[in-house]
Design brief:
With 127 residues, this protein is mostly helical. 65% of the residues lie in helices and 6% in strands. A hairpin with a 5-residue loop joins strand 1 and strand 2.
Length: 127
């Protein structure tokens, strides 16, 4: 085979190999460029900060926590936990603030909180 034929054959093989991958795209391929020279890639279009699954998990955990509070705590324990941890869309309060709100001592709030958290741990452990 002459050198010219070998070169032609190599070129032909190259084009055939390129045809196989002609439809392939890279996620970093540029789709568009704005006026400032910034590139928009395929990955930019496909990638989203989709935290929907995380939101659903948090909602389920909150729902389970509310159910556990209702089913396992006394009304006073439930009130202390809600106030202490800012449940029901409120700001968390210190033990002193909870004590003032409930008309009891801070040390009593601490004991109620400790007992209520232990009950909730046990209830969550059953899941």
């Amino acid at each position: 085979m002459r050198i010219g034929e070998r070169i032609a054959n190599e070129i032909l093989m190259y084009f055939r190999s390129q045809r196989k991958t002609a439809g392939d795209l890279s996620l970093s391929d540029t789709l568009d460029t704005d006026g400032e020279g910034s590139n928009l890639s395929i990955l930019d279009v496909l990638a989203q900060d989709d935290d929907q699954l995380e939101k659903v998990d948090v909602m389920e955990a909150c729902s389970h926590l509310r159910a556990c509070i209702e089913a396992n705590l006394t009304p006073r324990e439930a009130r202390v936990i809600r106030l202490r941890y800012g449940l029901d869309a409120s700001e968390p309060l210190s033990q002193r603030e909870v004590a003032a709100n409930c008309g009891i001592s801070r040390s009593y709030v601490s004991r109620i909180e400790k007992r209520a958290l232990e009950k909730l741990r046990e209830a969550f452990g059953e899941v």
